[in-house]
């Protein structure tokens, strides 16, 4: 079934089409939720909230403005941030910490497997992890991130700098331990 007919059937309340849409996008939504460091015990509640928003919002979805994949991505990101706020994981003082680093290091990430890198990202403090994901992975600007998180673009840049510094330190520690070859 193509995407347009799937959307039409979902809008009409067709349970089979809704199940198909859910199964088709579940792995993608789950990857977004996990990237932002949501605890495994909380994933199912958040995913349910995302798909409720998807099904309730399908009436407003306009395929002329973008594809369904990107629309669901935006909903998943916004719901995840809202969920984290509700869980009080994004504390104001954490978002406003300004750590500057003068050192610029290029690290060859080809020696690390993706799961290990995702684990490192998940261990970042919530504010730094959120900004890192939004900026580096999802491609939002600091101005857009600032609006989403209700912080200044400078605060967003500070959190990105902090995330990069912490990731660099973790990767360099692995180099010192000799676990992952040359960095």
Kindly describe this structure.
- This protein has 183 residues and is mainly α.
- The chain is 68% helix and 0% strand.
- It has nine helices and no strands.
- It has helices at residues 3-11, 15-35, 40-57, 68-86, 92-95, 114-122, 126-137, 142-149, 153-177.
- The protein is elongated and about 55 Å long.
Report the portion of residues in β strands: under 5%
Uncertain segments are 89-105
Instruction: Give a short account of the largest sheet.
Output: none
Distance between the termini: 46 Å
Please provide the ordered H/E string of secondary-structure elements: HHHHHHHHH
Shape: elongated
Beta-strand segment tally: 0
Radius of gyration over all CA atoms, rounded: 19 Å
Structural class category: mainly alpha
Count of alpha and pi helical runs = 9
In helices, the fraction of residues equals 55-70%
Mean pLDDT: 82
Task: Quickly list its features.
mainly alpha; about 180 residues; elongated; about 70% helix
Write the layout of secondary structure elements.
Elements: H1 3-11, H2 15-35, H3 40-57, H4 68-86, H5 92-95, H6 114-122, H7 126-137, H8 142-149, H9 153-177
Helix pairs in contact: 1-2, 2-3, 2-4, 3-4, 7-9, 8-9
Question: What is shown here, in short?
Answer:
The chain has helices at residues 3-11, 15-35, 40-57, 68-86, 92-95, 114-122, 126-137, 142-149, 153-177.
